[in-house]
Amino acid sequence: MRKLALLLVLVVLGVAGAYVAAGMQPGPAITITKPGKFAGAAIPLEYDIKSGAVITSERVFFEQNGARVEVHTGPAPVGAAAPGAHGLNSIHANLTISAAAVPNLKVLAGPAKIIVVASATIWKIRTVESEMATDVTIRLEKPRVSVVSTKHYINLGGAEMIVYRATPSDVASGVKVGDIEYPGFATTGDLHIAFFALRYDQELKTPMSLYARDASGEVATSDFDHMTFAKKPFKKSTIPLDDKFLDRVVPAILAGTNEVVPAGSTIDKFVVINSELRRRNNEKIRSMAEKTAPTMLWGTEVFYPFTNTKAEAAFADFRTYMYQGKEVDKQVHLGFDLASFANASVVAANKGKVLFAAELGIYGNCVIIDHGMGVQSLYGHLSSFAIKAGDMVERGQEIGKTGITGLAGGDHLHFTMLVNGQMVNPIEWWDPHWIADRIERKLKEG
Ligand SMILES: [Zn+2]
């Protein structure tokens, strides 16, 4: 009798111990990959459940404003078809839930929670449960975009402006030209302005449209009336290189950068500077677009046309570089070379904020001024600076003196305009008729 009692106690203790040990086993591991931060009325769900023991249940809840609705129950039988793949120890679920498909489910705009609960049975004596939740913001207002301004004319290598409406207020919107996006900027109400360009190397029939994209990835697009023009074929020129020039510019440029470390002869180093360093310098210039002001800092006054100077090279000249009778490189010159006299005064082409005033590879001592909404101007080869990064400058204010720094054959100013980091023909910005028709007319239409 006592033996039996002892045995009973041992069995009870054993079972209790096993029960406690089972409870200490980890529950299923849950990973939720969808939804992301945002979702629309239909909510994508993707999650994985992995467990050392057999998964016995899987439930998904949608929680909003304190109300919790079960939106999915599993697991489906092992080997079942969609949704996802269900095994004894692992589940990969991939489905979409919507109010239309789930009774009692109401999806409202605003913050919500997705909760996945999974359980597994340990040694067939105890169930352990895990829970994982993710926050999601529901957006029900779809992005919309529509054009307001009319008659958009774009020259190859030139710029244009558009006025349009975009909603809701937090969408990212602008103009897409081919695969290049030009962000727009909100003005009053739902009105926006975007400056955009047709790059010198894009096709005249490159697709152009307005876009509005929200944080959940919903995109609206809209066409706008436009015509493109290739006014004149771009000029072709040959640049002969001699040792005197190479010996002056190559060591000086390499001393001021660690972005390229070319080996070989001086002409080999020149080609690396002219191609690879040019590409990196242009990337740096493009990155300045991210720092643009969201308003037009310049009013609409025509850009300072540097009329006292002579243009030695125009925008998008196709240059072939020759050394000792052989072609060594080809590049496109994306600016104007303006010469008057050595150490001539260089002025800000319009009102704006100095973003950059430092040495920049092939551009030598270089200034970039932001005029807002992605419009910027660039001044290269300066011998000295009269301003520093961060300064606000007025139209006509001296910013430095011309020089021969960087890849400059003689004393001149290299000038270009930028639209969201893309180099565009400055001629348009110097032309009062262009400013009046392309910009001022549309501002009035808006
Ligand atoms: Zn130039």
Can you walk through the features of this model?
A hairpin with a 5-residue loop joins strand 26 and strand 27 (365-372). 35% of the residues are buried. The chain has three domains: 25-138, Sandwich (Immunoglobulin-like); 144-229, Sandwich (Immunoglobulin-like), CATH 2.60.40.10; 236-445, Glucose Permease (Domain IIA). It contains four helices and 33 strands. The chain has 446 residues and is an alpha+beta fold. 16% of the residues lie in helices and 44% in strands. The strands form eight sheets. Strands 21, 24, 26, 27, 28, 30, 32 and 33 form an eight-stranded antiparallel beta sheet that branches. It has a five-stranded mixed beta sheet with strand order 2-9-8-4-5, with helices on one face. Residues 77-83 have low confidence and may be disordered. Bound molecules: zinc ion. Zinc ion is lined by residues 313, 333, 335, 337, 414.
Provide tags for this entry:
single chain; 446 residues; alpha+beta; Immunoglobulin-like; Glucose Permease (Domain IIA); 3 domains; 8-stranded antiparallel sheet; 4 helices; 33 strands; 16% helix; binds zinc ion
Our count of helices gives 4
Ligands, ions, cofactors: zinc ion
Task: Name the CATH superfamily assignment of the largest domain.
Answer: Glucose Permease (Domain IIA)
Question: Rg, please?
Answer: 33 Å
Query: What about the largest sheet?
Result: 8 strands, antiparallel
